[in-house]
């Protein structure tokens, strides 16, 4: 097992009817900016519950955070923060809203061009404290330091991570996502699944506990994902999806083990160029990563085939092939297509991505820096 540090101060408030506890989580007299997305919180009653819980506070609102949150929109929120002397941010939404809120928290008092936080890993000296109310389980951002932001002017999508933007608390109520459309539920299932995979299918690191935890999340997603896709109002299934999504990326399963994240780095480009839902880009790219690196990731792929899918017979190549096929079948069982052609993406985009990686000097990325520019091209060409 590799050396590691683990720190996670996020207070998780899980279960039914917990929004009313905001009064105990945010000090009285706080100037709050309520941040949300396209307005679904008005339809499902969450907005009314939040406003009621914040009675007596000074509350300003900022809506319109996009499904792929942008730097440009975040800057508008920062202008409001400075005007109203905001000292706490409350994100009510899914991963996009929470990611945007983290970036806003970090950028609000940043000296210079805040895009440097993402593009050049610029230092974050301070951040506005924030809390979250999760409405869509998927990204795990409610319990980590990560954020992914897009820059519209250049069609880029980049990430940053900093402990200063970890939420002070996150409220997870499985009744809130009960009215989600199937597409968003499916995205949540696949996003969570691939988060686990990025921390699990690398190479053995003598970390059996982390492996078993990862496998437990994957198996639970396989069992509960179709249930919640069919009926988001199934409280138990949604509760399990919600907790799986959080556990997939709160840092616990990555302790002491190698990570990959090549699937995400490539997938972000498909979103940046074509607006494809994040989870769907992961479903496209992941089978290509495994096909191209089946030899380098052989031990973990065979372990995955055996422990997660119960494939214990046949040659090593047959078991790996079976695991890849069953993973694709699982993604497609919740309505997510897994090839570039399904999204009208062709070879010209592959060349754009390879050239962009070259300009960023991302010439050998991921697990053991296996993904060279040629391998990135090969991964994408295998998914046409």
Notes on the protein architecture:
- The mean pLDDT is about 95.
- It is globular, with a radius of gyration of 20 Å.
- It has helices at about 20-25, 40-45, 45-55, 70-85, 95-105, 115-120, 180-200, 210-230, 235-250, 260-275, 280-290, 300-305, 315-335, 345-360, 375-380; strands spanning about 10-15, 30-35, 60, 90-95, 130-135, 145-150, 155-160, 170, 365, 370.
- Strand 6 and strand 7 form a beta hairpin.
- The longest helix has 23 residues, at about 210-230.
- By secondary structure, the protein is α/β, with parallel strands linked by helices.
- The chain contains 15 helices and ten strands.
- A six-stranded parallel sheet has the order 1-8-5-4-2-3, covered by helices on one side. A two-stranded antiparallel ribbon has the order 6-7.
- Helix 7 (about 180-200) runs parallel beside helix 9 (about 235-250) and helix 7 (about 180-200) packs parallel to helix 11.
- It folds into two domains: about 10-175, 3-Layer(aba) Sandwich (Rossmann fold); about 180-380, Up-down Bundle (Dehydroquinate synthase-like, alpha domain).
Features:
384 residues, 47% helix, Rossmann fold, 2 domains, six-stranded parallel β-sheet, two-stranded antiparallel sheet, alpha/beta, 15 helices
What's the arrangement of secondary structure elements?
Elements: E1 11-14, H1 22-25, E2 31-35, H2 40-43, H3 46-53, E3 58-62, H4 71-84, E4 88-93, H5 95-107, H6 116-119, E5 130-134, E6 146-151, E7 156-161, E8 169-172, H7 182-200, H8 208-230, H9 235-248, H10 262-274, H11 278-292, H12 298-307, H13 316-333, H14 347-359, E9 364-365, E10 371-372, H15 373-381
Parallel strand pairs: 1-8, 2-3, 2-4, 4-5, 5-8
Antiparallel strand pairs: 6-7, 9-10
Helix pairs in contact: 4-5, 7-8, 7-9, 7-11, 8-9, 10-11, 11-13, 11-15, 12-13, 14-15
């Amino acid at each position: 097992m590799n050396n590691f540090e683990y720190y996670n101060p996020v207070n998780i408030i899980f279960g039914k009817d917990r929004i009313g506890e905001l009064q105990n989580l945010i000090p009285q007299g706080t100037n709050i900016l309520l941040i949300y997305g396209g307005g679904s919180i008005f339809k499902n009653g969450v907005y009314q519950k939040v406003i009621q819980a914040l009675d007596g506070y000074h509350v300003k609102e900022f809506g319109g955070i996009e499904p792929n949150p942008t730097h440009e929109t975040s800057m508008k929120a920062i202008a409001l923060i400075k005007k109203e002397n905001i000292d706490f941010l409350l994100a009510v939404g899914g991963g996009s809203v929470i990611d945007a809120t983290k970036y806003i928290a970090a950028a609000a008092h940043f000296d210079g061009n805040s895009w440097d936080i993402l593009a050049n890993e610029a230092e974050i000296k301070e951040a506005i404290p924030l809390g979250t109310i999760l409405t869509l389980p998927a990204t795990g951002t409610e319990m980590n330091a990560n954020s992914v932001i897009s820059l519209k002017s250049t069609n880029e999508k980049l990430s940053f991570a900093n402990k200063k933007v970890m939420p002070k608390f996150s409220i997870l109520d499985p009744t809130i996502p009960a009215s989600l459309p199937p597409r968003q539920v499916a995205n949540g299932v696949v996003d969570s699944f691939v988060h686990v995979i990025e921390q699990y299918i690398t190479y053995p690191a003598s970390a059996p506990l982390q492996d078993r935890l990862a496998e437990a999340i994957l198996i639970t997603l396989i069992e509960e994902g179709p249930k919640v896709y069919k009926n988001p109002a199934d409280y138990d299934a949604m509760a399990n999806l919600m907790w799986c999504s959080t556990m997939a990326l709160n840092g616990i399963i990555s302790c002491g083990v190698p990570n990959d994240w090549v699937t995400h780095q490539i997938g972000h480009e498909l979103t940046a160029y074509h607006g494809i839902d994040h989870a769907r880009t992961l479903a496209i790219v992941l089978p290509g990563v495994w096909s191209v690196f089946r030899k380098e990731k052989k031990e973990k792929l065979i372990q995955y085939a055996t422990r997660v899918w119960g494939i214990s017979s046949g040659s090593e190549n047959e078991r790996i092939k079976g695991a890849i096929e069953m993973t694709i079948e699982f993604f497609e069982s919740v309505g997510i297509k897994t090839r570039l052609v399904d999204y009208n993406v062709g070879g010209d985009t592959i060349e754009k991505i390879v050239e962009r990686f070259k300009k960023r000097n991302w010439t050998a990325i991921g697990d053991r820096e296996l993904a060279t520019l040629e391998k990135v091209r090969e991964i994408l060409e295998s998914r046409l």
